[in-house]
Design goal:
alpha+beta; Sulfite Oxidase, Chain A, domain 2; 8-stranded mixed β-sheet; 5-stranded mixed β-sheet; about 20% helix; globular
């Protein structure tokens, strides 16, 4: 497989310098070689941290399991995170996100809805009983975890919001508060963070409105107090710390696609046949043990969630990456 190097990428395709530096730093951490240097890097990447604050009342949904892979240890899942508002190194969010205040917290429902509204997080959280689903979680940087996420289908909140028939997309806006997020804007990403889904993607039963993991409320570094999980897409599509949900008739702007559309498509479905311009997506490193030496396995189409394939029938998934 032929991959382009940085020097072969046209200037029009190059990620802004600060964001590129951030990627290079995290990439070096992940891809550090075996031996003493690799072990030291891995140890630094997975510090012991305080876990989530409180237990959730959730029931296991055994329809959503990953039988072929071990669940990632909780401490690792909560100490190896992408959340650039709290730093670009994988360990930064766990160290820095204590400044995030998750109460009070409101979510604005805006755009093409019958009645715009503002919902208190605790009302959203208690709207219906929560369930735990074990999902594969795949990052564009070619690492993956298996995490038990706690929440309920996003479709149920969407139905509650009564979007108009003209609403074709859902946009998620994350919190942008310099007082709470000390690294906001420093990575080259323009706040606030924005992501979006087509309406059928948002309504799919796999798409989870998420309030916790491992039976506990979301840790701040995981996107507390409310995020979405879209398990067949790369992790950056699963918006964190959501403060606004907007229903639109046109495809919304999304942060990484706006930053560099040649590297980060709107759909961002896990597809081993479409490489990131600077690395392959054909394989992934399983961060599902405490080993310093993660196992590498072939990447599965749609991250293994074949039940979503019908939504993209007839689409060229190399163009619509």
């Amino acid at each position: 497989m032929l991959l382009r190097t940085e020097t072969e990428i046209p200037s029009s395709e190059i990620t802004p310098q600060e964001a590129y530096k951030a990627f290079q730093m995290t990439r070096r951490r992940v891809l550090s070689g075996i031996g003493a240097v690799g072990a030291a890097a891995a140890t630094a990447a997975f510090p012991r941290i305080a876990l989530a604050e409180s237990k959730l009342n959730v029931k296991d949904n055994t329809a959503y399991t990953v039988p072929d892979r071990d669940t990632t240890p909780e401490a690792k899942a909560k100490s190896y995170n992408n959340f650039y508002e709290f730093g670009t190194d994988k360990s930064d969010p766990a160290h820095n996100a204590h400044t995030l205040q998750t109460r009070p917290w409101n979510i604005k429902i805006e755009g093409l809805v019958k009645q715009p509204m503002t919902l208190d997080i605790d009302k959203v959280l208690s709207y219906r009983p929560m369930e735990q689903r074990v999902y594969r979680f795949r990052c564009v940087e070619a690492w993956s975890m298996v995490i038990p996420w706690d929440g309920y289908p996003l479709s149920e909140l969407i139905n509650y919001c009564n979007p108009l028939p003209s609403a074709k997309y859902v946009q998620f806006i994350s919190l942008a508060d310099k007082k709470q997020m000390p690294e906001l804007g420093s990575s080259g990403i323009n706040p606030p963070y924005s992501e979006g889904l087509r309406m059928d993607e948002a309504m799919h039963p796999l798409t989870l409105l998420t309030f916790g993991s491992y039976g506990e409320t979301l840790a701040n570094q995981q996107g507390a107090p409310i995020r979405v999980i879209v398990p067949w897409k790369y992790g950056f599509k699963s918006a964190k710390s959501i403060v606004s949900i907007r229903f639109l008739d046109k495809q919304p702007r999304t942060t990484w696609n706006e930053l560099n559309s040649d590297e980060y498509g709107f759909y961002s479905n896990v597809n081993p046949k479409v490489d990131h311009p600077r690395w392959s997506q054909a394989h992934e490193r399983l961060l599902n043990t405490n080993s310093f030496f993660p196992k590498t396995v072939p990447t599965l189409m749609f991250n293994g969630y074949d039940q979503v394939a019908s939504m993209y029938a007839g689409m060229d998934l190399k163009r619509n990456y």
